[in-house]
Amino acid sequence: MVPMDDFAARTADRVISECRGVSESEAMMLMDVPLEVLKNEAGRITEACASRKFDTCSIINGKSGRCPEDCKWCAQSRHYKARVTEYPLLSADKLLRAAELSRSKGIGRFSIVTSGRKLPPRDVEQLCESVRMLSERTDISLCLSAGLLSEPELETLREAGISRYHCNLESAPSYFGELCTTHSQKEKIDTLKAARRAGMEICSGGIIGMGETMEQRIELAVVLRETGVKSVPVNILAPIKGTPLENEPLISEEDVLRTIAIFRFILPDAALRFAGGRARLSKRTTLEAYRAGINASIMGDMLTTAGADMDADFALIRAAGYSL
Ligand code: SF4
Questions:
Q1: In the chain, N or C terminus with fewer CB closer than 10 Å?
Q2: Using an 8 Å Cβ cutoff, are 201 and 181 in contact?
Q3: Is the pTM of this model over 0.70?
Q4: Ligand 1 atom 6: the closest Cα is on which residue?
Q5: Ligand 1 mean position to 305 CA, how many Å?
C-alpha cells in the first residue's frame, strides 16, 4: 500500500472505532489521497457510523422576493438583477397542500424557507398559526428556515410544531465576508445556538463552488461540527444570471466527490444532505456520492432552481444500499 492510501485507511479505521471525526489538520492531509481510495474509505465510515436509512426532505419557498441582504450567490437579493417571482408569506392552505403532496411521495420532512434577513414579527405570528394547522393535519416533520430569528420567536415556533431550524453557514469563516457584507457568519451561528436552546434540532451546511479553496471547505465542515450540527446540506453552486457569481466556473464532479468524502471523515455520523445544484451531476457521480457519504437529500425542486427527478433519485438511493 502506498503511504497516502495507508494513511487514509488507518484514519478511517480510527474514525470508525470512535465514530469521532478527524482534526482539521488530518482533513487537510486527506486532500492528497487518491480520489478512489478516499471515496472507498469514506464509504466505510458512512456504512459504520451514519444512518443507513436515507433521510429525505422537501422544501417550499414560503415567501419569495426582494431581500435587503447582499449574499452574492442569491437570486433573491435586491442588490442584483436576477429575476425571481415575488410573493408574500404563503397561506396555511397552500403550505398544507404542499406538505401533503410531499408526504404522499414518502418524504419524511417538509421545510418552509422564507427570503429576507429574518421573518418579521407579523409573519412569525401568521406562520405559527399555519404550523399549528399543519401539525394537526399531517404527520410530516416540520422544519423552518426563516433567517436570524430571536430565541423567543424560535421558542414560539417550536411550540407550534417546528422541530428543526435551518440556517446555512454557507462557506468558511475565512471566506464568508467576501460573499456577504450585510450580516456576519457569527449572527448565523448565534441563531443556530438559539434554536438549540429553544429545543430544536439544527440543520446547517453550505454552498461549494463559490470560489473557495478545499482548505476553506474543510474549515466550514469543522465549524459545523463545533456548532453541533448533525444535518448538513451540501449545495453545489448553480451560478444564476444577474448575481455576482453568474460567471463562476462550475466545479468538477471529482471535486464534488472529494469534498463529500472529506466531509464524511470530519462528520462521521451526520446526515450529509444533497441540496441545490446536484441535478447537473451524472448518474454515476450521484451514485458514487451516495456511496461515499451522502445519506440524505432534499428531493424535488429547490428554491430558485429545478431539482432532480424524484423516482430516478429513489432508484439510485436504493442501488447505493440505503433503505427509504
Ligand atoms: S439573506 Fe437569504 S434571501 Fe436574503 S440575499 Fe441572503 S441568501 Fe438570499
A1: N
A2: no
A3: yes
A4: 71
A5: 15
In the chain, alpha helices (H):
3-18, 24-30, 35-49, 92-104, 121-137, 151-160, 173-179, 185-197, 214-226, 253-266, 283-292, 310-319
* Ligand 1 atom closest to 180 (CA): 6
Please tell me the residue having the least CA distance from ligand 1 atom 3: 115
- Provide the sign of the torsion angle of the four alpha carbons 224, 227, 228, 233, taken in this order: negative
pLDDT at residue 3, as a whole number: 81
Grid coordinates in use for 68? 435587503
pLDDT in tens, 204-233: 999 999 999 999 999 999 999 999 999 999
Please choose, from the candidates 118, 90, 75, the residue with its C-alpha nearest in 3D space to the C-alpha of residue 244: 75
Grid coordinates belonging to 19: 465514530
Q: Which of 15, 64, 2 is nearest to 262 (CA)?
A: 15
User: 113 φ, ψ to 5°?
Assistant: -120, 130
- 160-202 pLDDT, tens digit each: 999 999 999 999 999 999 999 999 999 999 999 999 999 999 9
In short, whether 130's Cβ falls inside 6 Å of ligand 1 is no
